[in-house]
Each structure stands twice: as structure tokens, then as C-alpha cells.
Design brief:
By secondary structure, the chain is α/β, with parallel strands linked by helices. The protein has 22 helices and 25 strands. Strands 1, 3, 4, 5, 6, 7, 8 and 9 form an 8-stranded mixed beta sheet that branches.
């Protein structure tokens, strides 16, 4: 019988489309300890728990362990607690250690008081702390371990000062190259893995909603390129890891180095077929580096879209959240370059930030669209993360943040009952946007997503702005406030947006469940898109939308818009990707609307001309045989690309066979 000390490790991540994350944090703990802990071979490490499983199943795996270490954050904290509590009940002698970003840095002793079954709570970087715990396990001299709170022999909770950060990241051996994940992969042959990966650690920024830069004092530490990162890239390819998520806060901060990393992955993809994708978080303030890195990722097929993250465009908000934002002029340059290179971009804004108002939020959305963002703006709901400046009582009181606890559900996540639900503290109101103002702001995000970024009305909206001079602010606000019957197609959608926002204020999840459509959680705007198309109410919607849009144009003093907008609506409706549409579609328009629209979204305005413009839409290449397949491959997978419209060929030559204006498509008769 083995006398080795058994160590269990738990880093629970959510699974996506049958794929699971390799537990990188645990790999770092193990590999660092392997060379820094004397007599390391005294310890026997169990395979880690890396995904959500039943509490009893986890306890069965861990019950014989002498030490169990949990890496925790918002997405796994409650399940980790439940496992630890039950494990302590069946094995009181097991040392339970909690670490990770969820353990509070400043009140670690109070955290330990709240959970009697936890023996040690650790904060900060875990490698040195975990190794020290192993080293002192036999003697239980926890006073020698830095960065922890623990109970002494009398049951008194004591807290140790934090240790210094690791200055040379190469002190941590690579868990990939040293074989930590080999047994995990071998013992779970049915699993598909997502690689978490780190090329540097730290962040020079201090955004109040994020803890990436907390405690790092603006220092970013790098791993060795030649002897480590290149070889890790090769490891991913040899192990057929399809998707790599780079955990760096600012990839591209080291221009030549990071560009060469992408080159290595690109070469490996061409040679081995893996990985399929590399996802990175852009460096914040270097547009040229971002452009070069993301262009290469796109050209080699390693990315699905470039995220240009703003969070807010409102100066008082940026000041309140300590956000060193990318300059708008840089964004315009990036957007123009990416558009010309046919590189898809998307942006994000955080909804509910301090000092943001409905008016400033609407203005920010409109500004981004004016500057060329027509593919997607993600409107992320603000939630309070542990160990951030925003989580302090002083900050919450200062900006009047109204919080509600709601279950965490994943966008497009499966509707499956969970034994333990994880929750988040979501911001559903602020001093600058209280109650119904927040509801209106949240509903605005849904409406803009539905009309503009789901492309259901983007063409007439763009022409209303570019040709008739109506601001995007006035257009979107008009759809949110305009008179319409509550039971009409568009009125029903608007009411659903407002009601969902109010439900969120009462603790409802961010997304909407649908058993009918793929049995997943949908963003409200996407589900409304699905419902309006599949219910046969598309024509009714366009009739409602034209009434609102005509009213907005008329109030603006526009003239001669009816014919142009009518044809723009028809064109938009004709180009929506739908299942069971394999025939070619031909129709004639009086204006060069398609060319004007494409020129505008490409940043190269073109004058509207009158004539006979023959449109031909080839729908034979993109086909979906069912509504379910369409929901997945168009609405879901096309989200960030905004890939909801067919392409269209236009000629101003007289057709051989005369066609009626607006065509003869049976869908719209």
C-alpha cells in the first residue's frame, strides 16, 4: 500500500459544444512544485477535476486524498464549495485549500470564517504558496506559508502577509512540455480540449471592473520565446488541440515577439492542421501592432473576428472606471484598414457602468456605427467581480450601483439542470441610470442588436443616415420610443425587450431560454430575430418598421425618401439568409442601393443614382435544410461576423427578359 501523500486538484470550467478547457492554473501549480518542493516524489497527484460534475461523483474521486486544492472564480465557486463541504464530511482529515481570484485579497480571514470546512484560503499568485503548503504539510507549520489565512491549533484564524510576485516566469516549468496534461488527455480519450495559454502575466492598466492588473504594479512578466512558447505552440498542434484561448491581458504589447508567435501557430496550422483558432485579447493602445497581429490571424484563418474593446465612449465614465481607452481616431484607422482587408471586426460596450446615462450610451453606440462598426457591438452586462476596485462598498455607494444576484448562464449554453447554480452580482441600475432609465438603456442595446447588427433592417437604416442625414441616435431612439401598437409584430418585440430588462432587475438571467430552438439560452435580440422569421410575421414586421422609419424621416424634414426606403426595405428583406431557399433570385431596383450601402459600410461613400439596376442573388451555395440548422449556423455562428445577408450581384445593363421592379419572389407576394 502506497505511503505517498495523495493530492487532489480541482479547477472547474464550463464546457462548450462538447469541449473542455485544460486546467492551466493547476498545471502551473504542479510544474512549479515539481522543481521547488524537496522530496516532491512523496506526493501522488490524482487526475484533476476540470469540468462540472455531480458533487458525489467529485467526492468519490477525491475522498482518499490527503490534500485537495481548489482554483475558484465566479463560474465555479458554489460548486467548489459544495464539493469541499461534502468531502470534509466524509474525510475530516483532508486538508481543504481554496485559492484563485474568488478568494478576497483583503479579508481572507473573514472568508475563512464563513466556511468552516476550508482549512486554508490563499490569495495572489498560487505557485509559491502551493509549493510552501506541500513543503509544510507534514509539520502543519502554516505560519511559514505566505499569502494565506489559516486556523491554528486553537482554532484561531491567522493571516499571513502576501509574498512577492514571481519575477522570472521561466521559474515555472511548462506544464505542457513537462507532461502534466498527458495522463489527463490519455485517460479521457472521448474529450475534445480547449487550450488555455499564457505568454506573459500581468496588466499595466487598472480598470475598476477588472482584477487583471490588481497587485501587479504595472509589471508584465514574459515567458521565454524560443525555448518555451514556440515549443508549447508545437505541443498544441501535435496534440490536435483545435482552439487556443490566450490568457494574456494585452497580446501584441510586445510587437515583434507576439507577431512571431502568431507566425509559429500559422505555420503549424498549415503543416499539421492544428490549431483551428487562436483567440487573443488585443493590446489596448497600439493600433498598428493590433492591426498587424490581427491581420495575420485573419489571413491564416486563426481568428473569427477582431475585438476592438471600448467598454464606453463617455469621458466621465472612462474616468470613473480608470480606463485608458484606445483613441477613436485609432479605432477609425483600424476599422478602415480591417474593412479594406476584409477582416471582420466587432466591438463591445459594457452596459451599466458608472456615470453612463441613456443619452451617453445611445451617443456611444451611434458614434461607433458612424465610424464603421456595422458587424456587431456586444452589449455586455456589468457584473461585480471579486477583488476589483468596483467591488468595494465605497465605490458602490459613490456611484449608486444597484445590484441583483442572478444565475450565471452561458450565451448559447444548453438548457440543462445544474445541481449547483453559480451566481453573479449584476448591476441593474446606477445613480446616473436608475431603475427605468437602466431598463431603457438595456432595451436600447437589444433593439440596436435586433435591427442593425442582426441585419434585419440595416440597409434602410444606413441609407436613412447617409442619404437623408438622419442621425443614428434619432433612428434608434425613434424605434424605442415611437408610436406602435403593442400587439403588432414590432410592438411585441419592443415590449419583450423592456420586460426582459425589468425581469433582469428582479434577478432573472441575462439570456432567454428556448426549448424549441436548439434547447439553448439565446440573447433576446437573436431569439426575436428567430421568432419573427419563423412565425411568418416578417412582412408584418417590415410594414411596422417602415411606418416608424417614415415618421423619423418626416420629422427630420427629409424629402423624397419613400421610394428609396421602400426599395431598400425590399432589398434587405430579399437578402436575409433563410433555409430551403436554393433558387436564384432576380429583381430590378430603380436605385443603386446595394452599391451605396456596401460603399458606406466600407468607409467609401457613394452617391445614390437612379436607373435600372438588375440584382441577382445566388442562394445555391449557402443552404440550410431546417430551421434548426439555420438557427445554429446563421443566427448563432454568424453573430460576431454579422453574416445574416446573402451577397448580391448588381448590373445596370438592360436585362434580356424584362423583370418587374421588386422581383417575383413568392415569399413576398
Amino acid at each position: 500500500m502506497s505511503n505517498k501523500i495523495k493530492v487532489g486538484m480541482v479547477q472547474i470550467n464550463n464546457s462548450f459544444s462538447g469541449q473542455n478547457y485544460l486546467p492551466l492554473s493547476l498545471g502551473f501549480l504542479y510544474s512549479y512544485a515539481s522543481i521547488h518542493v524537496p522530496e516532491f516524489d512523496r506526493f501522488e497527484f490524482l487526475n484533476p477535476i476540470y469540468k462540472r460534475i455531480k458533487v458525489q461523483d467529485a467526492v468519490r474521486i477525491l475522498r482518499g486524498a490527503d490534500i485537495v486544492a481548489f482554483s475558484t472564480y465566479v463560474w465555479n465557486h458554489k460548486l467548489s464549495l459544495a464539493i469541499a463541504e461534502e468531502l470534509k464530511r466524509v474525510n475530516p482529515n483532508c486538508l481543504i485549500v481554496f485559492g484563485g481570484c474568488h478568494v478576497p485579497d483583503n479579508e481572507t480571514d473573514k472568508y475563512l470564517e464563513s466556511y468552516e470546512f476550508i482549512d486554508i484560503a490563499a490569495v495572489g499568485e498560487g505557485e509559491k504558496v502551493f509549493s510552501s503548503i506541500l513543503e509544510n504539510f507534514s509539520t502543519k507549520q502554516w505560519s511559514l506559508v505566505p499569502s494565506i489565512a489559516y486556523r491554528d491549533n486553537n482554532g484561531t484564524i491567522k493571516q499571513q502577509p502576501q509574498c512577492e510576485r514571481i519575477k522570472d516566469m521561466n521559474e515555472i516549468p511548462s506544464p505542457f512540455l513537462e507532461g502534466y496534461f498527458d495522463n489527463l488527455i490519455k485517460d479521457n480519450p472521448e474529450e475534445k480540449w480547449i487550450g488555455l495559454w499564457e505568454t506573459n502575466r500581468g496588466c499595466p492598466f487598472a480598470c475598476t471592473f477588472c482584477d487583471w492588473g490588481v497587485g501587479f504594479k504595472s509589471k508584465v512578466q514574459k515567458y521565454d520565446l524560443e525555448d518555451r512558447l514556440y515549443l508549447e505552440a508545437d505541443w498544441f498542434s501535435h496534440n490536435k488541440i483545435e482552439f487556443i484561448f490566450c490568457c494574456d491581458a494585452n497580446f501584441g504589447i510586445y510587437k515583434d515577439r507576439d507577431y512571431s508567435i502568431v507566425e509559429r501557430f500559422a505555420a503549424n496550422k498549415e503543416k499539421y492542421g492544428y490549431p483551428h483558432a487562436l483567440s487573443v485579447q488585443n493590446t489596448k493602445n497600439n493600433s498598428e501592432t493590433s492591426y498587424e497581429v490581427q491581420k495575420l490571424l485573419s489571413q491564416t484563418g486563426l481568428n473569427k473576428g477582431v475585438l476592438i474593446a471600448f467598454q464606453s465612449l463617455h469621458e466621465p465614465t472612462l474616468k470613473a472606471i480608470k480606463r485608458n481607452n484606445i483613441k477613436l481616431s485609432h479605432f477609425f484607422d483600424l476599422q478602415k484598414k480591417f474593412t479594406q482587408d476584409k477582416v471582420v471586426t466587432f466591438s463591445d460596450l459594457i452596459l451599466g457602468l458608472p456615470e453612463e446615462t441613456y443619452e451617453s450610451f445611445l451617443s456611444g453606440i451611434s458614434k461607433l456605427i458612424e465610424m464603421g462598426q456595422h458587424n456587431r457591438i456586444q452589449f455586455n452586462n456589468l457584473s461585480i467581480l471579486p477583488n476589483t476596485e468596483m467591488a468595494s462598498e465605497e465605490y458602490i455607494d459613490k456611484y449608486g450601483l444597484k445590484l441583483t444576484e442572478s444565475n450565471i448562464v452561458n450565451i448559447h449554453g444548453t438548457l440543462e439542470e445544474s445541481e449547483i447554480e453559480e451566481t453573479q452580482m449584476m448591476v441593474v441600475g446606477t445613480k446616473s441610470a436608475p431603475d427605468e432609465k437602466w431598463v431603457k438603456m438595456r432595451s436600447l442595446g437589444y433593439m440596436v442588436g435586433f435591427l442593425h447588427f442582426n441585419k434585419i433592417l440595416q440597409i434602410p437604416i444606413v441609407l436613412s443616415n447617409a442619404i437623408f442625414g438622419v442621425s443614428y441616435e434619432k433612428i434608434f431612439n425613434g424605434f424605442l420610443e415611437g408610436n406602435m401598437e403593442s400587439e403588432s409584430a414590432l410592438g411585441t418585440i419592443r415590449e419583450e425587450f423592456f420586460q426582459h430588462a425589468r425581469d433582469m432587475q428582479q434577478g432573472a438571467p441575462e439570456f432567454v431560454p428556448s426549448e424549441k430552438w436548439l434547447n439553448v439560452w439565446w440573447p433576446p435580440d437573436e431569439l426575436s430575430f428567430i421568432n419573427i422569421v419563423t412565425s411568418g410575421k416578417l412582412d408584418e414586421f417590415y410594414s411596422d418598421a417602415k411606418k416608424i422609419l417614415f415618421g423619423i424621416l418626416e420629422s427630420h424634414g427629409a424629402e423624397g425618401y419613400e421610394d428609396v426606403i421602400n426599395q431598400a426595405v425590399h432589398l434587405n428583406k430579399s437578402l436575409i439568409k433563410l433555409p430551403n431557399q436554393s433558387d436564384k433570385l432576380d429583381f430590378v431596383l430603380k436605385y443603386n442601393i446595394w452599391d451605396v450601402y456596401n460603399s458606406i459600410v466600407s468607409g467609401l461613400p457613394l452617391e445614390l443614382s437612379e436607373g435600372a439596376y438588375n440584382h441577382s442573388v445566388d442562394r445555391s451555395e449557402d443552404k440550410w435544410d431546417s430551421w434548426e440548422e439555420w438557427c445554429q449556423k446563421v443566427v448563432w455562428w454568424g453573430n460576431k461576423k454579422g453574416a445574416y445577408l446573402y451577397d448580391c450581384n448588381v448590373s445596370d445593363k438592360t436585362p434580356e427578359i424584362e423583370k418587374e421592379p421588386f422581383g417575383n419572389d413568392a415569399r413576398y407576394q
